[in-house]
Amino acid sequence: MSKSFVILISTIVVVILVIGESLAANEPLIPKGCDCLYTQEFDPVCGNNGVTYPNLAILKCADKCAKYNIHQMHHGPCKA
After folding, report:
1. Which of 36, 20, 21, 25 is nearest to 70 (CA)?
2. Could you tell me the pTM of the whole model?
3. Which domain holds residue 46?
4. What is the C-alpha separation between 15 and 17, in angstroms, rounded?
5. Number of domains within the chain
């Protein structure tokens, strides 16, 4: 195999792993079985439950499927 082919394959593997990790990071924020569309844009918002969501769409998705009302308290991460 050529060196450039090995580098190409390695780069593709790394990109796939990074994308998969990014998608998995949002799973705990959204209840199991909740099916909604959202982007991977990072524009954090703080929910009234003290959880920082990566963006408003993910907060709204969590709200849609949560057993209680989740709404945005403010733009940006929640304060510790």
Report:
1. 36
2. 0.62
3. 3-75
4. 5
5. 1
In-domain check, residue 80: no
Nearest partner of 38 among 20, 55, 18, 15, judged by Cα: 55
- Please list the rounded mean pLDDT of every run of 10 residues in the chain (80 residues): 82 68 57 84 95 94 89 92
End-to-end Cα separation, the chain, in angstroms: 51
Amino acid at 71: H
Query: Does a structural domain hold residue 51?
Result: yes
Instruction: State the pLDDT at residue 19.
Output: 55
In a domain, 13, yes or no: yes
* Residues in contact with 75: Cβ distance below 8 Å, sequence separation at least 6, in sequence order: 43, 44, 45, 46
User: What is the rounded CA–CA span in Å between residue 17 and residue 48?
Assistant: 32
